[in-house]
Structure formats: C-alpha cells, structure tokens
Design brief:
The complex is a heterodimer. Chain A is α/β, with parallel strands linked by helices. Among the domains of chain A are: 2-67 and 211-255, ATPase, nucleotide binding domain (Nucleotidyltransferase, domain 5, 2-Layer Sandwich); 71-206; 484-596, 2-Layer Sandwich (Dna Ligase, domain 1), CATH 3.30.1490; 611-680, no CATH class. Chain A is built from 18 helices and 32 strands. An eight-stranded mixed beta sheet of chain A has the order 17-14-13-20-21-32-31-28, sandwiched between helices. In chain A, a hairpin with a 3-residue loop joins strand 1 (2-8) and strand 2. The radius of gyration of chain A is 26 Å and the shape is globular. Chain B folds into two domains: 9-227, no CATH class; 364-570, no CATH class. Helix content of chain B is 28%, strand content 22%. Chain B has helices at 9-33, 37-40, 71-82, 98-101, 168-177, 181-209, 211-234, 290-305, 344-355, 422-428, 535-544, 549-556; strands at residues 45-51, 56-59, 92-95, 107-116, 119-129, 158-162, 165-166, 239-247, 258-267, 270-274, 319-322, 374-379, 386-391, 431-438, 454-460, 464-469, 490-494, 500-503, 505-511, 516-520. Chain B has a seven-stranded antiparallel beta sheet with strand order 2-1-5-4-3-6-7, sandwiched between helices. Chain B has a five-stranded antiparallel beta sheet with strand order 14-15-20-17-18, covered by helices on one side. In chain B, helix 1 (9-33) crosses helix 7 (211-234) and helix 6 packs across helix 7 (211-234). The chains are: A alpha/beta, B alpha+beta. Chains A and B meet through helix 3, helix 7, helix 12 and helix 17 of A and helix 1, helix 6, helix 7, helix 8 and helix 10 of B.
C-alpha cells in the first residue's frame, strides 16, 4: 500500500508519495476554480496508482481562501437574547490607531441574518432562563425561507454548559437537514464570546464549500477504486479524518504551512537536534517556527486576514511567525527615497519580471537572478526559462535609477532587505524567545528557502543550516509524517493544590471519554492512541495562562510540587520573571489525543543512505555575494549527482529540480549519509 | 546624535525593523504577564525605547495613541535628576508625578537604562494603567478629587531598584497604600521585566552594529519621518483655521460648560496648533498637565500626516504647540488631573473640525467624543474581598466623505484598546450582563450615516457602587456638510423596586442587588445631507435594524413603498 501527500498552495500543487519502496513526486499548477483538477493532475503526473493508495493526506488553502475572498455560504448566526451584536461589536478596538478612516473586521454574517433566542446560562453553568425551543424552530423555518445555507450557534457560557446549544442543534439538524449547523461548544470550549462566535461563524461560513470540495475529492478517488483513508491536515499540526474535516473545516485553515514544519521537526529528531528553527520561504511569505524536541509549539488562536480587519480564529494552531517577504515580494522605492521590499507580492500572475509574462515590478526572484544566484536555465528543472535581461532592466528602472545606484548594487540591496525582513521572523521565534541562535540549527525549505537561508543565518549568527532532501516539495513530504490529532479543552477553575479532587478527576475523565469517543468514530483500534493532558495555569490575578503538562488529576490536587515548579520555570522563560510561592490558578484542562503512525516509511526514507541518481558536469558562474562590483567565481553543482560525503566550500551554488542552494564564500556544505546538506558557516566575530 | 554620517540604506532598514520589533516584544511580555484587566484585556499601556536625550526611538504598535507623546518627558526628569552617569545596570525607575507626567496617577511609567560599553545609550520604558494608586478615587470615571494629593501616590523619578537591589522601603509604601496590592505589584513586576527585555535587545543591537551606526540610522529614520510629515503638511492649503465645541462641565460645577476652542495654522510644511483660547483649568479633575495638550495635538497631527508609519521623535518636528500654563491642558502643579484624558477626544475632534474646510475629503464628521467606560466597585458579599470592575466600550464614529462611519469603536485616543469580554466580566464579578448591543437610531443621519453607539445593561447581583461619567451630552457628535448629529451618551438606573432614573455624571452611586444599569453610548455624526443618501442604503439600514422606520421617515423622508420627500429635519 502506498501513502501519498498532496499540498495545494497558492501557486503550485505538490505531491510526494511513497510507493513500492520509492519516493514519487510531482508539481503542477494549482487550479483555483476546481482544486480537484489540480489534485487529479498531480496524481497523473506522478503515475500514481490510486487503487493502491492506503492513505491519502491532503492539505489545502481552500478554507482560508474562502474566508479571504469572502466567498463562503450564506450564513446566519443565532445568539443569546441581548447579544445579537457581539459579533459586530467585537472588541471595540482600532489597532490601526491613527487612521481616522480605519476599518473594523467585517463579520461574515450580516445583522439581518443574526437572530436572538431566549435562554441563558450563568458563568458557573447554571440555567438562568430556559431555552425557547419554539423560537429555534421558527428561526429554522425563517432561515430556510431566506435561503440560508449555514448557521452558527453561539450562546453565552456554552463553553461551560452547552445544554442549550445541544438542544438548539438537535432541533436544527433534525428538522432542517440541509442547513450546515455549527455549534460553538463543538468547535471551542473556552470563554470570550466574540472570539468563540467568530470561530464558530468561520466554520459555518466555509463549511458548505469545503464540504462540497472534499466530497468531490472523495468521490473522485473512490471512482478510481481508492480503498484507503483520506486524512486532512489541520492547523494544529496533526491530521483529521475527511468526515471530521467536512464538519469542522475551520480546523484546516493553516493546512499547508504546518506540514513543512512537521517534516522539519521529524528531521530534527532524526538528526538528534533539540532546538531547531524551521524556515520556509515561498512566493509570498516566509515562515519560521522554533522546533523543540522535534515538536513545533502550538498557539491558541490567531487572526485570519490582515492584522486590522482579520477574523479571529481561536483554535490551536502551530505557532508560525510569518513575514510578507518571499520570492515574489515586490521591491519599491518609497516617497522619501527608502528602498522597501514587500509586503505586496507579484504572486503567480504576473509573477516575477524574469518569467517574461509581462510583469514590470521587480521582485526578490528577479534580484536573485541578476546577482547570478539563480540559474535561468535550470529553474524548475529547466521547465521554465528565466530572463535575466528583463529582470535587470526592471531593477535598473524601478530601483537603481531612483536611488542613484548601480543595477547590481540595487539587486543586492533588494536581496539584503528581504533577508533582513525574513531574519526578523526567524529572530521572533528564536532570539526573542530566549533561544541563543549560536546554539541553533536552521532547517530551510520551500522553493526559495535554500537560496536565502544562509544569509539569514549569518544575520543572526546561526552556525548551521540544513537543506533536507526534496526542499521544494517539503510541505507535501511533511504531511506523510503527520499524526492524527485532536485537541480538547474544558474549563476547570480552581487553585492549584486546592481544587476539589472530585472536580479535577471528573474533568480528566470527561476529556478522556471525549477522546475515546472520537477515536471510536474514526475507527481506530483501541489502545493505540496517546493521551497528553495539560493545565492552563497562571498566578492568581493574572489573565493569560501558560499550558503546563500534567500526567493526571493528582498533579493538580495532591501532588503539585512538580507542576508549580514547571510553571515558575516557564513563566520566567517567557516573560523574564517568576513569582515563586505565589498562588497558582487553574483555568482550563487540555487534552491532546494523537495516534502515531504505524509505519514510519517516510521517516525511514529521510534517514536512508543516499545514492546519486544522476550524473552531471560541474559548471561555474559569476555570483554576487558581498561586493556588487566584484562578482565571485562560484562552483555550480547538480545536487542529484553529488554522492554522500561530498564537501563543498563556498562560493558555490548547488542546484536541484525544485530549489537552489547558495553557499557563501568560506562556508562548507557537506552531503550527509542520508543525502541532506549540512552547511557549516564560517565563524563570524 | 547627528545624521551627518549617512548610514547605509540597508542598515537603516534593518535597524528600523529591529527597533519597532523590540517595542512590540516589550508590549507582548507586559500584556501576557499582567494582573489587571486594564492591561491584559483593555491594553491600556505603551512600551518604547528612548534615547539618552529622552527622545523617542520607537514605540509599540497598538495600545493608546495618547501615550505617544511623552514617555520621553518622564525619562527626561530622571536624566535631569541623576545625570546619565548616575545610572548603573540594574536600576529601575518609577515615575508618575502629576506635575511632570500630566496624566492621572494610575498611569505609572517604569524605565531601565540600557548600557553599551559601560555607557548609557538609552532607556527602555513603559507606561501602564494600574488598577489603583491609592487616594480617594476608585476606578476611572470618579469625579471626587479636587487636587492631586487626593488622587493617590506620586513617585517622581524614584529608583525602585538600584544596581539590582530593590528599595524595600519604597516597595512597602506601595504595598500599603494601594487598594489592590497583588494586582499593582504583579503589574509592576511585569512592567519591569518588559523594560529589562527592551534594554537587553537595544544593547544587543548596539553590540552588533556599534552605537554610532545605530544612532546614525535612528537619526536617518527620524529625518525620513520628518520629511514625510512635512510633505503631508505641505499638501494642505496654507491658512488659519478655527473651530469650537464644548464639554458639559467639570463634574463639580454642573451648569458651567467648558469651552474647547482651537486654532490651527498651516504655513508651508509647518503646522501650529494653538490652544490659547482653550478653557482655563477647572476645579474638577478634568485637567491635564502639558503632556495632555501635547498628546491631543500630536494625535491629531499624526492622524493627518502619517497614520500608518511607526511613531518616533521625527514625526512631530513640523508640529508646533502653543499652550499657555493655566489652560485646562496645561494645568498648574497640584491641580486635580484624575480625568486627564476625558477632554482629549473632543479636543482632537475639534482640531479635525477646524481643518474640515481645508481638507474636505479627509475629515469625518464628529465621533463619540469621550473615552467611554464604566467602573463598578464594592466588597464581595461572599468573603468581603474588594473588587473593581472597569471596562472600556466604544461608540459611533462620524460618517466619512465616501462611506458610513464605523460603529461601536473606541475613541480617537484609544487605538488597540479592547472591551472586556462579557463572559469574563461575569466570571470575575457579581453581575449578569443582560445585553450588549448596537443602539438603534444613534448614528447621525446623512448621505453617509454616522456609526452606531452601543447599549449595555448590567444587573448587580449584590450591593455595590457605580460611577457615571457621561460627557458631550449638550454638544453632540456633530455632522458635517449637512449631516445630522449623533445621539448622545447617557446612563440609566432601573432599580429593583421599579424606579428609573437617567444619570450623566455622578460618582459612587450605590446599587442594590437586582438594580440594573444601562450605558448608552453616543453615535457618530452624519456626513452630507440626509436627502442625498441612497435609498438602497436606507432600506439596508432598515433591514438590518440600524435605523427604525420612524427615523427613516423623520430623517430621510423615507416610507416603504412611497416616494421620498424632503424631510423636515434639514
């Protein structure tokens, strides 16, 4: 049986699979109108036997794009009486603080489709007013008449006692089966009504479209005798069944970027590195994550869209710091003569000037080409020719002339500014979190990552950069290593060591049972899952919490020394101080259920001995590194032809079908036994 | 620091990114480890780097715009007191002195020196709203004080830590004199850690690039910011522009309005904001020190010149301020300033109003014009522990030359300031929130309607007290170009015994279990004549319930199914 991962990105649809003991790959253009077509094409290009696929892993930008383009379903919202406008009011804030024409986030549900229902729970979960069930029925009828396709239900304090949501949901689902119904407590069991409403509405809004797409995808493969499982990548770094993804598509918002970081985490474990920075550079953005002990950290929520008007999404998401700098980022000169790069990207259309598709704005890739760092004849394995003359002319006209610089000098400036911006992302996940970059290793991937990684590493003194095998398809590869994962959270208020034993034990038992139920629903054999509990803790009086792993209820009730010590340590690490001895409060209990992969074929492939697959003759060309007036003769090597153990001292360019690795003068690249490239940077002061 | 040595443009960009990122990082550390809702939810704080001459290098994004002016002023006082040589590594300075900082004493500044090669190269500083600072005022919105001494503890550039050693006497004084010491000291620790982080980062930057390069880059960044701001002022037509509005009263003399008169002079690339004809300082706490006037002028200036660019010293070089002592925004030392910020949204809006004829496409109609927010306090019925619930809420912003105003947003003085979630308020405090909604018909009618205010009702679950502080009830958020005014702020008490009362300003009103309080916030003014509003937009407003059918008829002459008439309202 084979295993195949397909990642649909903004520009390309990537496939990596493991079939009959060998890796298969393909890369094809994404088809935004019908992503299934892109998936079909990628399977065809890879000569993949669909009937032999045991597991198909899939990540897609469909959910997030549906939000960004606001092309979701006609969605309604049902709230507690008195709270119709919670979603529109939001947090009242204006982060775009000095803009008197500021815009606030525009809800995905309009006010005329937002309805109130009587029924109220208190903060402690007691019923204050019973649910007006007749009103729910009437609303259902009204919504159907209005052509509503999806409805979000979010009641006050449903995170604590969801009985009213459960009752309303039962009515809506049984009587109006065509409505896509999302109940807030099914998605998120945490207080903060605006963020929970927003998350619930996001799910409803993207639901019908994602459900339809995944249905078509499933049908497509089933029609071709597919007999395996389809798993969907989710933002928390794990996977979920396609059935769950069709009900809870809000969980797959960050499907794509996350997968590459899983791959990086796996490679880190294989290489035995505890602290690793994953760095992924694509066309529009660069992303960085700090990976510790092979795992990327998880954040509780973020904002979808831009920082001022984006939609809050309060579900666990791999903590990826993203900056608007990528191969396609446009370079420009501002009104005061400052050279800027990004955040606007040329995207796939028209793309860089050097693609020759009529673009006029020079981008980072154009600068790389002018600097001799990219090979115009070998881009995407030679499938696409890059025109250096066009790139140079655009940089000359748009950057060099206005600034009074030489063309190459301007190109170098563009590359350096992009590197500086990207290094901030890398810095944000390392130095800024108390990680000394001099002890860290960077794993760089994505089409453009290996080209810029070493300059970024130099910027913040990272001594070692690793370019894994298949860096240009690394996200699809990462999927093949993702575990099935489900996150649960439940409010549990109390004081550490003072919380009632019965309450704590009940909370653990409830979460455990919820985990068992979903494992059963996804047809996993008993006993194979891993249960990891954590408690959200804070010093009494604080609001924000830190999740601390706890083995059992006793760690919160009777046997708490290790728990409080760990919390103090984490608080100090994050915020620079700890208040040892202060009372510690418990806010939530969390459970992460994971199902490890039974077979670790891709992990094994990552460490399998490397043999060259091709032969090639070494070339050389002029490449600009430090001095724009003095291009340096650099060796140009073809990665598929390099045997394990090869050592290359820069200046050098190592090219491969979907990526290019730039080795700076004095740095040493070595092909490991497994075929990864480890670059040791020349010591800096 | 001079910009004579021209820094490399690439290095400049690297340093520009770095200094702004450091300020944001300081803010995150403060917010996440804070102990009071005013910081962790409401985000009533600012963080930044200050140079060795007390000038602002960078400041965090978001937070309070009116904090942009004067972290430097606070640090300046310490530099004058100790001299740059008087700082050693490990020093932590605390500062909230009313006469110097000019803000209510709850706004406590903490800063630490930043060293490179044994020399002070700057400071990392933050200001955060402490939930209590002692004195007679509990929570914001209290109008009880009449001098600074009744408003709480003052710290004038005191070293809370000297060379890493804590001043236990000072610490004990704070501990014993504030109402919520756990919270105040917790926030204080978070503030210190945030500053230490900022100082460490700035030191690293100096180590990497050298002090000279860093300072020359900063000078270049300031010069660029100045150029940008000057270009924006240059684009405005020269002239002298005036506008006037007024506040209801100072909270003590309820029948005496407060005159807000401003003059703006545009000449070439220079803008002068003249507060000479502003009301004199008042008896109630509605005054501020000089920094209040500076904040008002700078916020207006920043909004008009570089709304998107990071805040630094260079942004304001083309702004001149005329503000004689004794005016309400430059009150004499010792004056009550507990409500220092309350007048600022109106003052800023009046500056914008003055410029409306000169910049017809850039100025919205009047916004809600107050700071918003409520305070409830008391002792918990269960165990007698004190509580204070403070929450900020928004109102309507004015209609704009090309679109309707935004609803339920915080004032022009409050950027990334957030309300406290209803669920969190109910978890922590003895109230049931019965509604939190938009206020129908509160947006001023116009071609482009003003945004809607809000309506919040809380039911007390036990005895407690509440402050009412509704302003701008007599000078409503104005319309522009024929637009109508927005609805005004008000409070309503509905007693459990059935009586009902409308309240504007009153401090410490006692409530019984079951009493309900409703806060109605102002809507924005309308822009342009109501009769020019698209019929489709009126129908959309009706469908969504933003306006009632009565208002549609009254303000727009609209009746469903009938031809529109010219309404009487014009």
């Amino acid at each position: 049986m084979s295993i195949v991962g397909v990642d649909i990105g903004g520009t390309f649809t990537d496939l990596v699979g493991y079939e009959n003991g060998r890796i298969i790959t393909s890369k094809t253009s994404t088809v935004p109108a019908d992503p299934t077509e892109g998936v079909a094409e990628s399977l065809r290009l890879a000569n993949c036997d669909i009937s032999a696929i045991g597991e198909l892993l899939h990540g897609s930008t469909i959910a997030i794009n549906t939000v960004l383009e606001r092309k979701g379903a006609k969605t309604a919202l049902i709230t507690t009486e008195g709270f119709r406008d919670i979603y529109a009011i939001g947090r009242n804030n204006r982060p775009d603080a000095f803009n008197i024409m500021f815009k606030r986030p525009r809800p995905l549900v309009t006010r005329d489709l937002t309805f109130e229902v009587a029924g109220r729970m208190t903060a402690t979960g007691e019923e204050l007013t019973p649910l007006d069930e007749a009103r729910v029925v009437a609303l259902g009828e009204q919504m159907v008449k209005l052509g509503v396709e999806a409805v979000a239900v979010c009641f006050m304090h449903a995170y604590n006692n969801p009985a009213h949501e459960v009752a309303a949901g039962a009515i809506l689902r049984s009587r109006f089966p065509k409505l896509f119904v999302t109940l807030s407590h099914e998605i998120l069991r945490e207080y903060r009504e605006y963020e929970r409403t927003s998350t619930t509405a996001l799910n409803a809004f993207v639901g019908p479209r994602v459900d339809g797409y995944l249905g078509r995808l499933e049908r497509f493969v089933l029609d071709r005798k597919f007999a395996g499982k389809i798993q969907i990548m989710r933002s928390n770094g794990g996977t979920m069944s396609i059935d769950r993804a069709r009900r809870e598509p809000v969980g797959m918002m960050e499907s794509g970027p996350v997968a590459g970081m899983i791959g990086a985490g796996r490679l880190a474990s294989l290489m035995g590195w505890d602290s690793v920075i994953g760095f992924d550079m694509g066309g529009t953005t660069a992303k960085a994550t700090l990976i510790t002990g092979g795992l990327a950290p998880i954040e509780e929520g973020y904002v979808i869209g831009d920082e001022f008007t984006g939609q809050p999404m309060q579900l666990p998401v791999v903590d990826i710091v993203e900056v608007g700098a990528g191969g396609g980022s446009i370079a420009w000169v501002d009104a005061t003569g400052g050279l800027r790069v990004g955040p606007v990207s040329a995207g796939a259309d028209p793309g860089p000037v050097c693609y020759g598709r009529g673009a006029e704005e020079p981008v980072v890739t154009d600068a790389d080409l002018v600097l001799g760092r990219l090979n115009g004849d070998r881009f995407l394995g030679g499938a696409m020719h890059l025109d250096r003359g066009l790139a140079a002319a655009a940089i000359q006209k748009k950057i060099a002339e206005p600034l009074g610089l030489e063309t190459v000098e301007a190109a170098l400036g563009v590359a350096r500014i992009a590197d500086a911006a990207m290094s901030l992302a890398v810095r944000a996940v390392s130095v800024n979190r108390g990680i000394d970059p001099r002890d860290a290793v960077m794993i760089a991937f994505g089409g453009a990552g290996p080209l810029h990684a070493i300059a970024i590493a130099k910027e913040i003194y990272i001594p070692t950069v690793v370019i894994p095998k298949l860096p240009g398809n690394f996200s699809a590869l990462g999927m093949l290593m993702a575990e099935w994962r489900q996150d649960f959270v439940r409010t549990l208020f109390g004081q550490l060591a003072k919380v009632a034993v019965a309450d704590a034990e009940r909370a653990f038992a409830e979460l455990r049972q919820a985990g068992e139920e979903i494992l059963l629903a996804d047809r996993f054999a008993p006993g194979i899952a891993h249960f990891a509990f954590a408690a959200d803790l804070r010093y009494r009086g604080q609001e924000h919490t830190i999740p601390i792993p706890v083995p059992d209820a006793a760690a919160l009730t009777t046997d708490t020394a290790a728990t409080s010590a760990l919390f103090d340590e984490q608080h100090d690490k994050r915020y620079g101080h700890a208040e040892t001895g202060q009372l510690i409060e418990i806010v939530n209990l969390r459970l992460v259920v994971t199902v490890p992969r039974m077979e670790d074929t891709i992990g094994e492939w990552l460490s399998q001995p490397w043999e060259p697959t091709e032969t090639a003759i070494e070339q050389s060309r002029k490449v600009v590194f430090e001095d724009p007036a003095k291009p340096v003769d650099a060796r140009v090597l073809w990665r598929p032809a390099l045997p394990a153990g090869t050592e290359i001292v820069g200046p050098a360019v190592i090219e491969e079908p979907n990526s290019t690795i730039l080795i700076h003068p004095g740095d040493t690249a070595r092909i490991t036994a497994a075929g990864h490239i480890v670059v040791t940077l020349a010591p800096q002061e | 620091m001079s910009s004579n040595t021209k820094a490399h443009p690439i290095t400049v960009e690297v340093i520009r990114n770095a200094i702004n990122a450091y300020a944001d990082e300081m803010a995150l550390a403060l917010c996440k480890s804070a102990y009071n809702m005013m910081i962790y939810e409401v985000r009533d704080y600012c963080c930044g780097l200050i140079d060795s001459q007390a000038r602002m290098i960078s400041q965090n994004k978001g937070g309070l715009p009116i904090f942009l002016a004067d972290l430097g002023i606070a640090v300046q006082d310490g530099i004058e007191r100790y001299g740059l040589e008087g700082f050693v590594p490990g020093d932590v300075v605390i500062m909230n002195h009313g006469g110097v900082c000019g803000q209510h004493l709850n706004n406590v500044v903490i800063y630490v020196p930043c060293f490179h090669e044994g020399k002070v190269i700057g400071f990392a500083a933050n200001r955060a709203h402490w939930v209590d600072i002692g004195g007679s005022r509990i929570g914001f919105g209290s109008l009880v004080s009449s001098d600074i001494f009744s408003e709480g503890l003052q710290f004038r550039s005191l070293k809370l830590y000297e060379g890493g050693k804590r001043n236990e006497t000072l610490w004990q004084i704070i501990l014993d004199n504030v109402r919520f010491p756990d919270s105040a000291l917790g926030d204080l620790r978070a503030q210190i850690a945030s500053c230490q982080l900022g100082a460490r980062r700035y030191g690293e930057l100096a180590k990497r690039y050298g002090t000279e390069t860093v300072e020359s880059c900063i000078a270049t960044i300031w010069d660029k910011a100045e150029l940008e701001a000057r270009a924006a002022v240059e684009a405005m037509p020269d002239g002298t522009y005036e506008a006037e509005s007024f506040l209801d009263n100072d909270g003590r003399n309820l029948d005496t309005p407060i005159r807000i008169k401003v003059k703006v002079i545009i000449k070439g690339s220079q803008m002068t904001i003249d507060f000479s004809e502003l009301n004199d300082q008042v008896e109630g706490p509605l005054n501020s020190g000089y920094s209040g006037g500076l904040a008002a002028a700078r916020v207006a200036f920043k909004c008009l010149t570089q709304p998107q660019a990071p805040v630094n010293e260079g942004c304001f070089r083309s702004l001149e301020l005329i503000l004689p002592e004794g005016k309400m925004l430059n009150a004499r030392p010792g004056t009550a300033i507990g409500q220092w910020s309350v007048a600022l949204p109106t003052i800023i809006d009046t500056i914008l109003l003055a410029l409306a004829p000169a910049l017809p496409d850039q100025i919205p109609a009047g916004h809600k014009g107050d700071m918003g927010g409520y305070t409830f306090f008391g002792a918990r019925a269960s165990d007698g522990r004190r509580f204070v619930l403070m929450n900020i809420y928004g109102g309507g912003w004015g209609g704009r030359p090309h679109e309707d105003g935004e609803s339920a947003s915080v004032s022009i003085c409050q950027g990334d300031v957030r309300n406290a979630p209803c669920e969190l308020q109910e978890i922590q405090y003895p109230f049931i929130i019965e509604s939190c909604s938009l206020r129908q018909d509160s947006g001023g009618a116009g071609k482009f309607r003003g945004g809607l205010g809000g309506e919040m009702t809380l039911r007390a679950l036990q005895k407690c007290f509440v402050h009412f502080n509704a302003e701008r009830t007599k000078c409503p958020p104005w319309g522009l170009g024929g637009g109508l005014s927005g609805a005004t702020n008000m409070g309503v008490i509905r007693r459990a015994n059935g009586t009902e009362e409308i309240v504007y300003k009153r401090s410490g009103v006692p409530l019984d279990e079951g009493d309900r309080v409703t806060f109605l916030t102002a809507g924005g003014g309308g822009w342009g004549k109501p009769r020019e509003r698209d019929t489709a937009a009126i129908e959309d407003d009706l469908r969504k319930g933003y306006i009632s059918s009565e208002a549609a008829k009254r303000d727009y002459g609209y009746v469903a199914g009938a031809a529109r008439t010219d309404q009487a309202a014009e």
